[in-house]
Amino acid sequence: MEDEVDRLVAAWRRERPDLDVEPLEVLSRVSRLARHLDRARRLAFAEHSLEPWEFDVLTSLRRAGAPYQLSPGQLLTQTLVTSGTMTNRIDRLAKRGLVERLPDPNDRRGVLVRLTVEGQHRADESLAGLLDQERAILGELSSRQRTELASLLRQLTAPFDNVPG
User: Which positions carry the signal peptide feature in this UniProt record (predicted)?
Assistant: First the structure.
């Protein structure tokens, strides 16, 4: 079975036989897959009237477990955005009734961001939709193949996840 990357690699091997284009065989496929995944994610979130960034914040809170709350700093760490961006996101989610701000009982000046019942519902429903989309993308891969692929991708991404800042 030939794909677009096979054709791209063959063309580069013909045009630039002096270069080792082997990395394209893996990373061009990863890049193309990322685009398909991005489309699938947007579709799953749109079905629940969410933007991808809203899903990220809501599911960060949902994964925290009951009472589904985190400090803005903890949300920053999980979503990798700036403080100003996070403040804006929390404001917008609060306006939509998906999160609420509460005083932090351990810090007089601090606040906690808590998922509302509606926010929890949206997080749960959009996650289910996302998983349906992702299963479709994985298609006919067996459970063993999925495990092997996950392991190989982990080897590639782990060094990036463990780099400070």
Answer: none
